[in-house]
Here is the input.
Amino acid sequence: MATSPTDTSSDAANTGGIEVSFEFFPPKTEKMEETLWNSIKKLAPLKPRFVSVTYGAGGSTRERTHATVKRIVDETVLNPAAHLTCVEATREEIDAVIRDYWDAGVRHIVALRGDPPSGIGEKYVPFEGGYANAAELAAGISRIAAFEISVGCYPEKHPESPSFDADLDLLKAKIDGGASRAISQFFVEPDSFLRYVDRARSAGIDIPIVPGIMPVGNVAGYMRMASATGTHVPDWFKDRFEGLDEDPHTRQLVALAVAAEQVQRLADQGIRQFHIYTLNRAETAFALCHILGVRPDKPLAA
Ligand code: FAD
Here is the structure.
C-alpha cells in the first residue's frame, strides 16, 4: 500500500485497510446502560480494533468504568481499553486499579493525565504522591504488566502547552513510557489533524496517530467543549447548524454529513485508523464506518 507522510496504516487490519475503534462512556442509569449495550451490539460486528471506556473527572466513574470494561471482557469478543487518569489519586491507588484491570483480563489502557478537578482551564496541580502526567502514568503501567498503552494527543496543541514543540516532546516522553498509539483530541478541520501528523513525523514520532472523530450531538455542548479545549470552530461549521436548535432530526443528519466529510477527507489523505467518539449511540458511528467501507460480514437486519 502506498504511504504518504500522513499515513498511519502500519497495523491496519480491517476492511479495505481501514481500522476503527469506538469510545463509550460508563452509563449512570439503567436506561443509559441499555442504550450503551444496544450500541455495543450494533457496532460489534464491525470488528473494531478496540473499544474504549472513559474515566470520569477525578476518578468519579472509577467503579462504573471498571464495571463496563469488565462486562465487555465477560460478555463480548471485543478488546476493551480502559481510560485511566492521574487525578486525585496516589501512585499506589492507581497501581492497584491497573493490577485489577490486568487480573480482570484487560490488556489495553488509555493513559491520561486528566483535567484539573476544579474544571478545564484551571491550573493543574499534580496530586501529592501521584503520577504527574500521562508520560509518568504510561511508564508506571509498563512497569506493572505488558499492557498495550494508548495516549492522547492534540492537533491544535494542548491549551496548557507553550508550543507545539513542547507538546510533541511530551508525546515522545509518553512513547518512552510505553505508549504505542496516540488518539487525538477532536477537531473540526481535518487539515489541522493532517498538519499535526506531519509535524509529529518530522519530529521523529512514528507510532500510529489516530484521529478522534466526534460527531456533533448537542451543538451548545460541542461549542463549550471546543472552547475549553482550544479547538477552532470555523464560521462555516457554525452556519451548518444555525437554526436547527429545535430540529434534532435534521441536526443529526447534518452532523453525520459533517463527520462524513471529515473522515472522507482524512481517508483520501492516507489515514487508515479512526477512533469514533460514539457518545454511546451507534447510528452515526455505524454510518461513518459504512462510508469508510468498514461493514459487517453479513448485512444486519434494520
Ligand atoms: P499530558 O499530555 O500528560 O499533559 C497535558 C499538558 O499538560 C501538556 O501538553 C503540558 O502542557 C502540560 N504538562 C504535563 N506535564 C508537564 C510537565 N512535566 N511540565 C510542563 N507541562 C506539563 N479526561 C478524563 O478525565 N477522562 C477520560 O477518559 C479522558 N479521555 C480522553 C481521551 C482522549 C483521546 C483525549 C485526547 C483526552 C481525554 N481526556 C480524558 C482529557 C484529558 O485528560 C485532558 O486533555 C488533559 O488536560 C490532558 O491529558 P493528557 O493525558 O493529554 O496530559
